[in-house]
Specification:
The protein is an alpha+beta fold. It is 54% helix and 13% strand.
Length: 270
């Protein structure tokens, strides 16, 4: 029997290019949300699964292969907010525009940004003006940002204070600081589920919740007491003074510089 070689025609090339483009844009979109960390976890799991099969790790292969049956449902549950947002944008005709932004993940917070945030926090603490400020780090918080009003303005303590003044249009919600700019305001953050009592208000619960799903630093000013707190990695540091705030925010740059050195060393060895 004669087998004719399969010849790739123009339609095949176009088909491959379209699929490649869609996958590329989806990857860019995922990187702008918290789903990127989850996505990397899925990739690691698939790599382990492949090696388990190649190296004949019977038990590990059996465990992972039997979880594949519920894997699709698990992925849908984990990525539900992102999938919903994508479908909403598709219905509005803005789906492709949501894929067009990329940001550098290795970045420092400038001394100007630190100073203005602390000045604003002190001013709002004196007047007991409630505030919630998210400082993005490596894990993108684009889904938080998309829930609010885009500002994309330069940081000043006056602007931050004016945003959170009671009864103003943007006071209810969080401000997102990204790339040393006020990226958005009136943003909605997820509430933590780890605290069942009512010892903390909604702002503090939102700050802890956002810090549980990202590596962001979230500053909170209490409307009741004027107390300044900072949430990080699911923990809340309460009743902070100016020196403590400077120390906390300066540590962001120390961690970032160390990670950049490691990243640059890896790149140089490739």
């Amino acid at each position: 029997m004669n087998y004719l070689p399969y010849i790739i025609n123009l339609n095949d090339v176009i088909d491959i290019l379209i699929i490649t483009y869609i996958i590329y844009k989806i990857m860019l979109w995922i990187k702008e949300t918290r789903a990127w960390s989850l996505f990397k976890g899925v990739i690691v799991l698939l790599i382990i699964f492949a090696f388990a099969g190649i190296l004949n790790f019977t038990t590990l292969y059996w465990i992972i292969s039997n979880t594949v049956n519920v894997g699709l449902i698990a992925i849908i549950v984990l990525f539900q907010p992102e999938i919903r947002k994508a479908l909403e944008q598709l219905g509005k005709g803005n789906f492709m525009s949501a894929f067009t932004k990329t940001e550098e993940t290795i970045q420092k917070i400038s001394s100007h940004t630190i100073n203005e945030i602390i000045k604003a926090a002190k001013a709002m603490s004196k007047t007991k003006t409630g505030a919630l400020i998210v400082i993005e780090r490596e894990v993108p918080v684009g889904d938080f940002e998309q829930s609010g009003i885009l500002i994309d303005g330069f940081i000043s303590n006056q602007l931050l204070v004016n945003i959170f003044v009671n009864k103003t249009p943007l006071h209810d919600g969080a401000v997102i600081i990204k790339n040393n700019k006020i990226r958005a305001a009136a943003c909605i953050l997820p509430l933590t589920q780890s605290i069942t009592s009512h010892e903390l208000g909604t702002r503090h619960r939102a700050a802890i919740g956002a810090s549980e799903v990202s590596d962001a630093y979230i500053l909170v000013v209490s409307e009741e007491s004027g107390e300044i707190s900072v949430a990080k990695n699911g923990k809340l540091n309460k009743n902070l003074d100016e020196k403590q705030l400077i120390s906390i925010f300066s540590s962001i740059n120390v961690e970032t510089v160390n990670k950049f050195k490691i990243w640059r060393r890896i790149k140089s060895n490739e």
